[in-house]
Amino acid sequence: MEQALYVYNTLTRRKEVFKPLNEGHVGMYVCGPTVYGDAHLGHARPAITFDVVFRFLMHLGYKVRYVRNITDVGHLEHDADEGEDKIAKKARLEQLEPMEVAQYYTNRYHDAMDALGCLRPSIEPHATGHIMEQIDLVEEILKNGYAYESNGSIYFDVESYNKDHKYGILSGRSLENVKDASRELAGVGEKKNQADFALWKAAQPEHIMRWRSPWSIGFPGWHCECTAMGRKYLGSHFDIHGGGMDLIFPHHECEIAQAVASQGDQMVKYWIHNNMITINGQKMGKSLGNFITLPEFFSGKHEKLEQAYSPMTIRFFILQAHYRSTVDFSNEALQAAEKGLERLMDAWKTLGGLQPVEGEGSVTSAAVEDIRQKCYDAMCDDFNTPIVISNLFEASKLINSIADKKETIGKEALQALTSLMHTFIFDLLGLKEGTGEGGNEAREEAYGKVVDMLLEQRMKAKQNKDWATSDLIRDRLADLGFEVKDTKDGYSWKLNR
Ligand code: ZN
Fold first, then answer.
1. Comparing 30-39, 180-189, 401-410, which segment has the lowest mean pLDDT?
2. Which residue has the higher pLDDT, 280 or 217?
3. Whose C-alpha in 104, 281, 370, 460 is 20 to 30 A from the C-alpha of 405?
4. Is residue 214 reached through a cis peptide bond, with omega within 30 degrees of 0 on the bond before it?
């Protein structure tokens, strides 16, 4: 950890040297999906962004506790116009238990994220499993005088909070323009101020998902779950809170207010936000008809898609932009990403077949180290994956030149180049070979073990002077493209593709 890692903190609006609160440990909370429908491109981006953050922090030697919640209460705030809990609505329409709907889409979300190569979080808490913690939070805020009851619902009193603390520090909004911008219809007439937000809502008779509280039978406000669960699993002060930029206001702004109103100070040290994805220059939205789910991308079954795109193409496409830049989706852009990824993976395969020269070749160890350092610098500069990728393409050019005999490489430099490519392509960017449908790496490893098993049988045959069997194994493997060499202490093999 000798080189400093810089991260952009949305709260301070600048890049800061990353220093965790507890040496060697990092606590990271990322807002997860609301599970009433399939994940779309807008879900893929935060998942991939924070997967790379997770991977890189672990690579730096930190022990990371990564918490990503499942929102399984479909809050009114998500869809003020419809006025019905989305999970409950789906359940009613499909005649299912609300939890059946939530579980179904949670499973589908996991499948999509696995396909995208996102590592599973350390803890994945559900909002419905933490109602007590959310009630506790609301009670603390009430006790401190920053909330009030109205018809069994509890609202956060933004104005009284703003007198003692400053509301709007994350989004840079003042209370005045929050009031103007707030179009939340729910709770009109119950709230003292338009900017106030619900901490607890009394349930209407038709509301299925409901719990007992000191104030009414109802359900918690959306912002409560992340504050309550973040604190439960990461402590009252933790390092990173992440999510998409669309969550800065109101969600994360309200989370900060809830934390300060309950415990007196902020919980989070670094707020990290990924930018949004647009589709042909437009914001994604159901009403615009450009809402493409991940299963639709993987199968190509959507009128806006010219073809199917593999999960790895989607991942590569997203990583080609810095997480704080916008990304515009189009078929052309995804097709270009598909080609780029193929080029990179071809170079990786070519690398496996390169033969080193004696001593130092024209591609020196210093040249390889220079590329590695540039990749590493880019990751340390606020996880700059597009710069990493451009350096990996530089390395790919060298690999192809060596394969074409225009350049040469020594053994030490070749090992360094292989390790550099492996670390950045697979371990840090999290890409997988093949179609990326998952399990390819594991399958390759298993195939390798089978080859080893056969070659051990061949060693035994040789020891028994059974030359016929020994030659048969070698020749049959050669037919399949395996080059087997006898070495001092046994054998070595590689697959020539
Ligand atoms: Zn959240």
1. 180-189
2. 217
3. 370
4. no
DSSP for 376-426, written as a single string: HHHHHBT--HHHHHHHHHHHHHHHHHHHTTSS-BBHHHHHHHHHHHHIIII
Q: What pLDDT is recorded for position 77? A: 38
Helix (H) or strand (E) holding 112: helix 98-115
CA of 8 to the centre of ligand 1 (A): 19
Distance 227 CA to ligand 1 centre (A): 8
DSSP state string for 258-291: HHHHHHSS-SEEEEEEE--EEETTEE--GGGT--
- Give percent above pLDDT 70 in the chain: 92
**How remote is the C-alpha of 427 from its chain's centroid?**
14
**Of 158-167, 280-289, 454-463, which one has max mean pLDDT?**
158-167
Strand order in the sheet with 277-279: 282-283, 277-279, 327-329
**pLDDT for the residue numbered 446:** 73
Complete domains list, the chain, with CATH: 6-274 (3.40.50.620), 294-428 (1.20.120.640), 438-495 (no CATH)
| Core vs surface per residue 94-120: b (16+ CB within 10 A) or e | eeeebeebbbebbebbebbbebbbbee
For the segment 221-253, what is each residue's pLDDT rounded down to a tens digit? 999 999 999 999 999 999 999 999 999 999 999
Distance 241 CA to ligand 1 centre (A): 9
Ligand 1 center from residue 28 Cα (angstroms): 12
Output the CA 248–ligand 1 centroid distance in Å. 10
State the distance from the centre of ligand 1 to the C-alpha of 480, rounded, in angstroms.
52
- Report the pLDDT value the prediction gives residue 92, as an integer from 0 to 100: 75
* Span from the CA of 6 to the centroid of ligand 1 (angstroms): 24
Question: Cα(137) to centroid of ligand 1, in Å?
Answer: 15
What spacing in Å lies between the alpha carbon of 226 and ligand 1's midpoint?
A: 5
> How does pLDDT run across 158-205, given as a tens digit for each residue?
999 999 999 999 999 988 877 765 555 556 688 999 899 999 999 988
What is the Å distance from ligand 1's center to 485 Cα? 56
Taking residue 324's Cβ as centre, other Cβ atoms within 10 Å add up to 16
Q: What share of the chain is helix, strand, coil (3-state, %, to 5)?
A: 50, 20, 35
**Has residue 441 got a pLDDT over 60?**
no
Task: Tell me, in angstroms, the distance from the centre of ligand 1 to residue 244's CA.
Answer: 10
Ligand 1 centroid distance, CA of 239 (Å): 15
Q: What is the mean pLDDT of residues 264-293?
A: 88
